[in-house]
Amino acid sequence: MINLTAAEKTTLKKAYNIALRDLKININPDYAPLFNKRIDVINAGADYPAKWTRDASINVHFGAYLFYPEEAKNTILASIDTFPEIRIGGEFWDAVIFSLGAWQYFLYTDDKEFLTTCFEALKNSLVHFEKCEYDAEYGLFTGPAVYGDGISCYDDKYIDTVNASDNIFHYKQAMLRRVHLGHQGYTMKVLSTNCVYMRAYEIAKLMSDALGVSDPSYSKKAEELKNNIMEYFYDKQSNKFKYYFDEDSTCFSQETLGLAFLELFDICPQPLMRDIIEKTYSSNHGVPVLYPNFERYKRDKNDYGRHCGTVWPHAQAYFALAAKKAGCDDVFKRELLLAAENALRFDQFYEIYHPDTGEIYGGWQEKHGGYIMLNDCRHQTWSATGFIAMILHGLCGIPINDPKEFKKISLNIDDLLR
Questions:
Q1: Is the alpha carbon torsion for 149, 152, 158, 161 positive or negative?
Q2: Per-residue pLDDT reduced to its tens digit, 113-124
Q3: Residues 6 or more apart in contact with residue 127 via CB below 8 angstroms
C-alpha cells in the first residue's frame, strides 16, 4: 500500500487531469491503410500529427481505451499495413510491440472481429521478422532499441559519418553490410527489443487460443527467447543486464525500458529483478531513458543527448509499474511523484525532461555533419497515458492484464484518491 499525504494527493489529482486533457487533444484523423481512408485515432502528440505504431500500441496499453474505446481501436487497426500482405506497419525493429495494445484492447472488449484482424497481422509479421531479423546463432532478434530511432541511443561506432543523419536507419555499418546479410543489415541485439518479441510470441499464443486456433509453437518460441535473453544479456559478474551487443562490442548502459520489460513480462526471476530495480539510477527528476550520457554529448556540464541521460515519461512509467510489480514501493512512489511534478511545472506533459533541472529539454543529436539541440514536443500522448497507467495500474493496483476490473470502479481521480 502506498501512503500519500494530502499534498501528494493534490499533486497527483492535478497531474491526472492534465493527462486526461493531453490525451483528449491528441485525438485527430490519420490515414488507415486497412480502410484506405482517414479515421479518428490517438496521435503521438501535439507536434507529431500521426499515430506511430509504437506510440499507438503503448498509448492503448497504458489505458487510452478506457476513455476513448473507439479511437483506441482505430489507432491499433490504423497501424496495420496491407502491402504486400496484412502486416504491422511502422519501423521494423519494434513493430511487434503492436501486440501489447491489441491484446489489451481485446481483454477489455472481447471484440473477436478486431482480434481476428490483429492476429493475422501479428502472425504474418512474426513470420516475416523471423526470416529477416532473427539471428539463429544466439536465438535473438537483431535491430535497434524500442523507441530508439535517434542516433543518440547508441555509442560512437553507430554514428553515420556518410549521411550525417540523426537516425539509426542510416548508420554507416548498416549501409555496408546490407548487401551481404540480405535484410536490414543490423547485427546489434538489444534488450528491450528482444523482450518485446518474447511477449509478442506469448500474446500470439493467447490470441490463437481465444480464436480457437491454438498454436503451441508460439509458447515454445517465447520460452526459448526468454531463456536466451537471460543467457546472453545478463552478466553474472557485474550483476547487470547488457543494453545491447553486436559482433565486436557490448554496451552496458542502463536501458530503462528493457529493465522494465524484464519484470513486467516475467522474464527475469525474483529476487534478482527486485535487486536490479532497487539499484537502477534515477536522476533528480526521474529515471533516465538511458544512462549514462554518452561522452560526445557532454558539450557542457548540463548537456545531454536526446536519448541518453534524459527523462522520457513513457519509459519512466513502465519502470515505475515494474517497480510496483516487484514490490519496490518506494521506487514506484518516487517516480510517480516526480512524473506528476514534471507535468505540473508546465501544465502539460512534455516528451522529455532535463534530468537535473526538470526543464523541457530536447537534447543534443547529430545532424547535417554537426550537432543540434532538438525540439521538446508538447502535449506528448504517451507521457500522459503513462501517468494514467501509473495511477490506475500502479497506485490503484489493478493488474495490467486484467483491464475488465476497470468496469467496476470510477475513473474519476477524486474517487480514486479519497
A1: positive
A2: 999 999 999 999
A3: none
Domain edges within the chain: 6-416
For residues 320 and 277, the answer to whether their CB atoms sit within 8 Å is: no
Cβ 43 vs Cβ 51: under 8 Å: yes
The three cell numbers of residue 131 are 526470416
**CATH class name, domain 6-416:** mainly alpha
DSSP state of 40: E
The predicted-structure confidence for 315-374, as pLDDT tens digits, reads as follows 999 999 999 999 999 999 999 999 999 999 999 999 999 999 999 999 999 987 788 999
DSSP state of 161: T
Asked whether 30 and 55 are in contact (CB, 8 A), the reply is no
Over residues 223-233, the pLDDT tens digits come to 999 999 999 99
pLDDT at 180: 41
Grid coordinates belonging to 275? 535487486
Looking at the predicted structure, is the pLDDT value of residue 1 above 90? no
Tell me which residue has cell 517516480: 335
Convert 245-256 to b/e letters by CB count within 10 Å (16 or more is b): bbeeeebebbbb
Give which of 262, 226, 269, 222 is closest to 243, Cα–Cα: 262
